[in-house]
Amino acid sequence: MNQKDYIEQGEKYILKTYNRYPVVLEKGEGVYLYDAEGKRYLDFGAGIAVFALGYGNKAYNDALKDQIDKLIHTSNLFYNIPAVEAAKKIVEASKMKKVFFTNSGTEAIEGALKVARKYAYNKDKTKDYEFIAMDQSFHGRSQGALSVTGNAHYQDGFIPKEFRAVFAKFNDLEDVKSKVTDKTCGIICEVVQGEGGIYPAEPEFLKGLRKLCDEKDILLIFDEIQCGMGRCGSMFAHDLYGVKPDVMTLAKALGCGVPVGAFVVNDKADGALVPGDHGTTYGGNPFACAAINAVFEQFEEKKVPEHAKAVGEYLWDQLEQLKDQYDFISGHRGIALMQGLEFVPEKPAGEIVNAALKKGLILMTAGNNVIRFVPPLVIEEKDVDEMIRILKEILDEA
Length: 398
Ligand SMILES: *Cc1c(COP(=O)(O)O)cnc(C)c1O
Known about the structure:
The protein is of the alpha/beta class. The protein has helices spanning about 5-15, 45-50, 60-70, 80-95, 105-125, 145, 150-155, 175-180, 205-215, 285-300, 305-325, 350-360, 380-395; strands at about 25-30, 30-35, 40-45, 100, 130-135, 165-170, 185-190, 190-195, 200, 220-225, 245-250, 260-265, 330-335, 340-345, 360, 365, 370-375. The strands form four sheets. Strands 4-12-11-10-7-5-6 form a seven-stranded mixed sheet, with helices on both faces. A four-stranded mixed sheet has the order 1-2-3-15. The protein is globular. Pyridoxal-5'-phosphate binds next to helix 5.
């Protein structure tokens, strides 16, 4: 079968919830992907901010192969060695207290929401609670995660009004404060909004949320699924702000391609959930946790977050130059290897992404006419140069 046949069969057999690009990706090598016809692509999407280590990292691949031969799955009725090791690594890196492993980011969000609800319930036994979430946020597609996702486009048709969180303006502390009621059990936000268009939180906003949650004795949840794990140049994005959450969610680069997520609780939130309150069959299985361990080991050995910070600064300078050169680029935001360029409405970001794909460059859009740059964290300055060269060709034609 050739690429066209696979695309036809994909359309025939896979439920159509995506408009996919007409490309079948077959293998990866470093920062490049290859399609089924052997065409090479420079990858500035990393499978949506997932493949931090690049493709074909030997130590990572070997760790997975070893674990496959040893033990792929047990259940959470037993302990397993990779899970214990991975939990310890996450706790030590985050200076939080305990970890629950999930299979995805969405499930990490579900768990985090349950922690906040249960924390409130344990105090007063009332059953009616509200969350405050942010406009333009994204937390996942299940009913619970969607209920706190500030985007009508995703919610409509699925989440009735009464189940939706109360939404506040991101980076507007007064707006959040005005929405707190005695039903509020938690505030959830991304430290850097990803899908919404790459909007970093302002330091005063996060500090204010922390203070507010302490005063009201409610839980602060930071969704670090996209911005965490080194992408912003520190292990977790909130490290840069010196503000700690009560619950943090992780996924995407946590397993670097093996589907795994986690929510992490601090001392205050620990104990909200007790045996029987939450569970999962796959979550934290030895295979997934071997991936987490290999990621942490590679991060340490290769100083991946520090590298992301350094290359991120280079990327920043290059994108700033583009912004100065082309007047249809209206904004540039982000931190380290999570950056976005916003385009004026007359220049659709989607068309630029399509043109890039034809020229062998994978880019992704986000939010309202933004191109998002979330490459593997191991990219080098020369890869940034190659990306910029291709992008400039496209912008010159545009
Ligand atoms: C991707 C993402 C999610 C959802 O994670 P899945 O693994 O797709 O379920 C949640 N929050 C943020 C910030 C994300 O970027």
